[in-house]
Specification:
Elements lengths: L1 H9 L2 H17 L4 H28 L1
Helix pairs in contact: 1-2, 1-3, 2-3
């Protein structure tokens, strides 16, 4: 969750991929709540894409 927040703050695709990989590793290692971690991975991907779009819009207006 901290990685998700950091990736959203930075708004960079790189941080998003790091969060995605961490969530996938957690999903593989987790005994039962796999769907939770897979959902977090998808959420991190969506949030990073949204954050990247938002930052590119702000950079375009500067």
């Amino acid at each position: 969750i901290l990685a998700l927040f950091i990736s959203f703050l930075l708004g960079t695709p790189l941080a998003c991929w790091v969060a995605l990989i961490l969530c996938l590793i957690s999903a593989v290692n987790a005994p039962q709540p796999r769907f939770l971690f897979l959902g977090l991975a998808v959420l991190s991907l969506v949030m990073a894409h949204a954050g990247f779009s938002i930052t590119s819009v702000f950079k375009g207006q500067m």
